[in-house]
Design goal:
about 230 residues, alpha+beta, Glutaredoxin, Glutathione S-transferase Yfyf (Class Pi), Chain A, domain 2, 2 domains, about 50% helix, about 10% strand, globular, binds glutathione
């Protein structure tokens, strides 16, 4: 008989070092599964291995396989988990708040962070993915990885500025979910776990409330996030 871990699998992007879980989106799903107390087996995945996730109907990870069900896209996975496993609610009642965080992270933070960290991230990319990654970047940004990475400073400053309202919020509440974290926190945790994995430089100092919030999430679920080696150890 299959164990629940064998039945439930999460395809997650890894770099050349399989310990480098470098996708913010995959971290969202990982945290959502842990929040729901659902065990799963991790399926390390390279972004060119499209055939392995063909049954999801798409070309990106995370992909969750839950029994016979294939679910793609971190937001869809969160909604699927909430519907299928209602215990330990992910949204604290406010789906719209989490949706806003999702869109803010995807559309505002990630393009800026990408520019700020790409020079440090690219060396971690799996050898089999490098050419695809370079071509995709060129298509998307009309610039090469080298050109984008040459001057991370303006992007770094823009990220710090964009984080102001989040910092102000977390000065008043422990988590976006209130007293305890919810999916809004996991969305943004995924963003900064990506930064921790690919970059030597965080976007805040150790006396910032953002640091306090992030450290608490690294410790959540028996330190699942902290078990991920940071950039200096990869
Ligand atoms: N909206 C998707 C975005 C997922 C995504 O872009 N994943 C990247 C890894 S960080 C990917 O699989 N890229 C493969 C590709 O671009 O071909 C989600 O939230 O799951």
């Amino acid at each position: 008989m299959n164990t629940p871990e064998q039945k439930r699998r999460l395809f997650e992007v890894v770099g050349e070092n399989p310990q480098a879980h470098l996708s913010p989106y995959c971290w969202r799903s990982r945290m959502a599964l842990a929040h729901k107390r659902l065990t799963f087996a991790s399926e390390p995945w390279h972004i060119t291995e499209k055939q392995r996730i063909e049954r999801s109907g798409g070309v990106t990870a995370p992909v969750l396989v839950d029994g016979g069900m294939w679910v793609r896209d971190s937001w869809q996975i969160a909604c699927y988990l909430e519907k299928t496993y209602p215990d330990f609610p992910l949204f604290g009642g406010a789906v719209a708040q989490a949706l806003f965080c999702n869109k803010w992270a995807d559309n505002t933070l990630h393009p800026l962070i990408f520019r700020a960290v790409i020079a440090e991230q690219f060396p971690l990319t799996a050898r089999c993915d490098k050419i695809y990654y370079e071509e995709r970047t060129q298509r998307k940004f009309k610039k090469s990885v080298e050109e984008i990475g040459a001057d991370p400073k303006p992007a770094r400053q823009a990220v710090v500025q964009a984080l102001g309202p989040l910092e102000d919020t977390l000065a008043e509440v422990s988590f976006l979910g209130g007293g305890t974290p919810d999916y809004s926190d996991y969305i943004l945790f995924g963003t900064f776990q990506w930064v921790r994995v690919v970059s030597h430089r965080p976007f805040w100092s150790s006396d910032s409330v953002l640091h306090r919030w992030f450290e608490a999430l690294l410790d959540a679920f028996d330190g699942m996030g902290r078990a991920q080696p940071p950039r200096s150890e990869l």
